[in-house]
């Protein structure tokens, strides 16, 4: 019997040695130790083989305490703002120092996009995140005025207004609660379809939304193209989207040749067909299609979630809501009595100074993209550390936006913090920075501002059914009930 117990004890000791001294340190040996002193990497935890630190990451985000993941690194290794780890299938360095974050995002010579293989395949070979640097610059120059110029943005105001007003009236007339986030996603999709290709029929919108749902899920999947897999469905959805956009372009080109006069405002596809570079070269159909697919993907979820959050924050902060309401009322009141245009103008939107502080504070506090991924093109010296070529740099935006040393009382929703902002470079990066800065910032903020204007000035309120329901932080932060609520209009 004694011999049996000794054998069991020896087996336990051997198992412990194998699991915790060998297996647990395999990643550390493979990615760090075996290179000797060649790389001076920051401290951190490489985790387990294959999965790295994915389990504590999931535990933190699914527990409703997403910031605890980074706090654990800071507790173990000190608040140095850079930590090595193995996450999302790659050896990585997490960065939370604003100046270092900005350097990574601004430096295209040493850092490229760190998107997954599935993302690169699904966005297409001519998308902004996949084309070579010279072509990227050319595309940015060509599309800049179409998605951020005042002339183009002014064209889009009417597209947004009609959809927003109709949906608000419809929700307020309903007797039952709605999943506000789900409704906002549909609204955002209607707006984008109307702005980008001029489509507004219910059947077409429904079809496109279903295709994009399958397409979107593929970005978070393994790039395995087997029947029934999420990635396979996403590829199929992309092919369907390509066919749809090809037909749209074909029809528009035929109309241009025939000089067909259309009694409607121009959409973005019209403008993309017309745009020319300094050599007189335009965009081919494949490029336009990949751009449109990318714009839909980037703008659909972001706008919907941001609008929902802004309204939730305003509902929870009556003084802030009243200040925003007073500004909107003043803007409308200042209109000339004989003004023919009863809707918003670009001039009025630019006067919404406080509302845009509300939007920026919403973006900061929500941090929809909790990290921005880059990949080292060469061995890089970063803040005194040497990062090997091919490693991912995870710019942890959430940690930056919620750092009490940067933002006093960061958990508080406080638009006044933007009145005289003295921010460190890289401390506000919801859309990234540098050459790879999201090109749709102005269009996204325009859409959010228009919706908030009509919601606030129209006297609408959001009455949540489960105001204390828990939050789900993956893939994007949202209430688990999708913000089930009644939209009520004060009489």
Automatic annotation (TrEMBL):
Looking up PROSITE patterns in the UniProt record yields: CYTOCHROME_P450
Name its co-factor(s).
heme
Gene3D superfamilies the UniProt entry points to: Cytochrome P450
Q: Where in the cell is it found?
A: Membrane
Q: In terms of domain of life, where is this protein from?
A: Eukaryota
Q: Which GO terms describe its cellular component?
A: endoplasmic reticulum; membrane
Q: How does it sit in the membrane?
A: Single-pass membrane protein
Q: Which CDD domains match?
A: CYP90-like
Entry keywords, A to Z: Coiled coil, Heme, Iron, Membrane, Metal-binding, Monooxygenase, Oxidoreductase, Transmembrane, Transmembrane helix
From the UniProt record, which GO molecular function terms apply? ent-kaurenoic acid monooxygenase activity; heme binding; iron ion binding
Q: Which residues form a coiled coil?
A: 242-278
Where is the chain membrane-spanning? 6-23
Q: What is its main location?
A: membrane
**Positions with a binding annotation for heme:** 438
Q: Which GO terms describe its biological process?
A: brassinosteroid biosynthetic process; brassinosteroid homeostasis; sterol metabolic process
- Please tell me whether the keyword Coiled coil is annotated for this protein: yes
Q: Which PANTHER family match?
A: CYTOCHROME P450 26 (PTHR24286), CYTOCHROME P450 88D6 (PTHR24286:SF199)
Protein family membership: Belongs to the cytochrome P450 family.
Descriptive protein name: Beta-amyrin 11-oxidase-like
Q: Which organism is it from?
A: Cucumis melo (Muskmelon)
């Amino acid at each position: 019997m004694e011999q049996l117990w000794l054998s069991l004890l020896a087996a336990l000791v051997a198992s412990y040695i194998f699991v915790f001294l060998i297996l647990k340190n395999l990643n550390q040996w493979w990615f760090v130790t075996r290179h000797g002193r060649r790389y001076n990497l920051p401290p951190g935890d490489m985790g387990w083989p294959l999965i790295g630190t994915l389990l504590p990451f999931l535990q933190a985000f699914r527990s409703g305490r997403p910031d605890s993941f980074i706090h654990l690194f800071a507790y173990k290794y000190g608040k140095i703002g850079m930590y090595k780890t193995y996450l999302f299938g790659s050896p990585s360095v997490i960065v939370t120092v604003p100046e270092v974050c900005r350097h990574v995002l601004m430096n295209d010579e040493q850092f490229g996009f760190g998107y997954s293989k599935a993302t690169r395949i699904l966005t297409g070979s001519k998308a902004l995140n996949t084309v070579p640097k010279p072509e990227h610059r050319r595309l940015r120059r060509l599309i800049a005025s179409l998605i951020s110029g005042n002339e183009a943005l002014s064209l889009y105001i009417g597209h947004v207004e009609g959809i927003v007003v109709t949906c608000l009236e419809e929700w307020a007339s309903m007797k039952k609660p709605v999943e506000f986030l789900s409704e906002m996603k549909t609204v955002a999709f209607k707006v984008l379809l109307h702005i980008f290709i001029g489509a507004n029929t219910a059947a077409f919108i429904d079809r496109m939304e279903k295709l994009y749902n399958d397409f979107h899920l593929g970005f978070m999947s393994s790039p395995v193209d087997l029947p029934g897999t999420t990635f396979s469905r996403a590829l199929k959805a992309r092919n369907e989207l390509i066919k749809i956009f090809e037909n749209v372009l074909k029809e528009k080109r035929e109309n241009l040749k025939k000089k067909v006069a259309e009694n409607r405002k121009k959409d973005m596809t019209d403008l993309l067909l017309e745009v020319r570079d300094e050599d007189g070269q335009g965009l081919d159909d494949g490029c336009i299609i990949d751009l449109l697919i990318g714009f839909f993907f980037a703008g659909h979820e972001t706008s919907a979630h941001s609008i929902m959050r802004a309204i939730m924050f305003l509902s929870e902060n009556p003084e802030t809501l009243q200040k925003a309401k007073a500004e909107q009322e003043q803007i409308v009141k200042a209109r000339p009595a004989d003004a023919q245009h009863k809707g918003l103008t670009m001039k009025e939107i630019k006067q919404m100074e406080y509302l845009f502080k509300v939007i920026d504070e919403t973006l900061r506090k929500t941090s929809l993209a909790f990290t921005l991924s880059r990949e080292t093109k060469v061995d890089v010296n970063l803040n005194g550390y040497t990062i090997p070529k091919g490693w991912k740099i995870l710019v942890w935006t959430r940690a930056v936006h919620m750092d009490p040393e940067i933002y006093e009382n960061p958990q508080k929703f406080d638009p006044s913090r933007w009145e005289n902002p003295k921010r460190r470079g890289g401390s506000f990066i919801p859309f990234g920075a540098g050459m790879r800065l999201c090109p749709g910032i102005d269009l996204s903020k325009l859409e959010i501002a228009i919706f908030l204007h009509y919601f606030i000035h129209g006297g609408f309120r959001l009455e949540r059914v489960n105001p204390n329901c828990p939050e789900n932080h993956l893939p994007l932060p949202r209430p688990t009930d999708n913000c089930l609520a009644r939209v009520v209009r004060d009489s």
